[in-house]
């Protein structure tokens, strides 16, 4: 029996009223923390900070985020060569695996959604592997586990696996078949066989099944092919500003960008939520925040910043084309630099521009998360975009 990859898979976890995802989606603004599981975090700077890629540091961040009422944590995945992206800081040379990391966090946390990025087209991945591994993580986390499916835009990464990067839109066709098969494995109570364009299975079966139909599915995209994939498969779409990191330009460009994706999902009878990645530099006054930002820029490791910018130039990602190398010093997708009220106002404006969630990054994660929780989060609660968390 061949699998029709256009047949929808199991229901979204959002369709189950008691699922962790459904609970999170009741928030007017989803709030997430983008864990720094890679050395240097998001910033190519040598300015002093506590930020660390090590598990204990990230676990402490996750626990504190949960205490503050955050909804989710998120780990990226990338494969870098010796020296990372360069510079004296050897930017991102060290990186712990997000799948293992967030699964381990399931044993420590009780409420956070735990999202892991996975390059499904690299190396030995097969739909059978992902179906079983993700179902296991789903049970360990009691339905809180999710997969950020990425196809890999870098030409260097697949070479490490003895592969070459496939053409951009073809990768999304491959991802569509891969995840359609995986969803069928989560759904089917019988063996099934599939002789497809990219994958073959004979009498395949996986059990136990995920608790709420399937794990949470996420994708990170900005291209037409990526939007088409997300519209069919994803619960959450991790988007970038099509206008670069300047927040005013981002707020102007995002409504049309997010509306297009959401309208496309509705053609499949689905609802999708969008999440963006603000990098927040916040202090008690705007002057103090500006001074903090200027110190990060003054101590930039330009070798690392240029190396990271060249990494994006070498790939075929459509999402970061209007982001300039200087913006890679601080990193993140949209830069919010100001006092607590300014930062809160910008987050609310991004939310009104069609971004359902904020996947926040900081320069000094431990200290800046604490300041955000004390000074910005109460303003979001007062504005009604963050509801009390039980």
Automatic annotation (TrEMBL):
For this protein, the record's Pfam families field holds:
Bac_luciferase
Q: Which InterPro entries match?
A: Luciferase-like_dom, Luciferase-like_sf, SsuD_RutA_monooxygenase
Q: Which GO terms describe its molecular function?
A: monooxygenase activity; oxidoreductase activity, acting on paired donors, with incorporation or reduction of molecular oxygen
Q: Which residue intervals define the domain Luciferase-like in the entry?
A: 29-356
Q: Which Gene3D superfamilies match?
A: Luciferase-like domain
What's the superkingdom here? Bacteria
Instruction: Provide this UniProt record's keywords sorted from A to Z.
Output: Flavoprotein, FMN, Monooxygenase, Oxidoreductase
What protein name does the entry list? Luciferase
Q: Which organism is it from?
A: Bradyrhizobium macuxiense
